[in-house]
Amino acid sequence: GKFDKELPFVSEARASLRNHRDLMVLAAMFHDVAKPYRHGDIHGWESADILRDIIGVDYNNRLAEWAVRHHMPMPFAHKAEFSLSNPDALEVAKNIARDARRVGIDAATAINAFVLINAADIINGRELNVDDNWAKKAMAEGPTKYGNDISVKNVLSIELKEKVDLLKKAFKEI
Fold first, then answer.
1. Which of 8, 10, 51, 92 is the most exposed place for a label (fewest CB within 10 A)?
2. Distances (CA, A) of 168 to 30, 55, 104, 106, 160
3. With contact defined as beta carbons under 8 Å apart, do 160 and 118 qualify?
4. In this structure, are residues 118 and 10 in contact, taking their beta carbons and an 8 Å threshold?
5. Could you tell me the maximum CA-CA distance found in the chain, to the nearest angstrom?
6. 101 Cβ neighbours under 8 A, 6+ residues apart
């Protein structure tokens, strides 16, 4: 795939979910569909409701709906806040993990779906070497964890590693 060399963890997640490819494509397409109407706390939830209305309620569709619902862990609208360095984020991650278990999604599948939906959200059709606008704004406010490299690739690599580490910890603790 396009990211095999530059973002191997995204390629690995995609490969592990190959049986769910169509659902993940739909999830990527619909993850922000409610954003123009409700940004913030509930747009992921409303987007998931719209997706469910379109594809129906089915055991196999739960993964796409879950990924859309949790692609922006609230109340952490800013990517940097959802990491192990923020103690409040672990409770949110545990709730996300509990929701995955509630709908019958195992930890590995949930984490891979989370990687894919977040990669789609951050890349958003851009080249990997361009500056990430969100990181550029954060950098203007002071030093960031990205150093001087605010490329989409670097931001994605740092953000997803932190999110995955947090979700792994959450799944172990619930």
1. 8
2. 25, 29, 17, 11, 12
3. yes
4. no
5. 46
6. 174
Phi, psi of 5 (to 5 degrees): -80, -45
Distance between CA 35 and CA 33 in Å, rounded? Answer: 6
pLDDT digits (tens, 9 = 90+) for 62-101: 888 888 888 777 656 555 577 787 888 898 899 999 999 9
Backbone dihedral region of 74: left (phi > 0), alpha (psi from -120 to 50 degrees) or beta?
beta
Measured in residues, the chain has a length of 174
The encoded tokens of residue 157 equal 């690599």
Q: Which residue is associated with the tokens 């949930």?
A: 110
Tokens of 17: 């979910």
Q: Assign 127 to helix, strand or coil.
A: coil
Mean pLDDT of 97-126: 90
- pTM score over 0.85: no
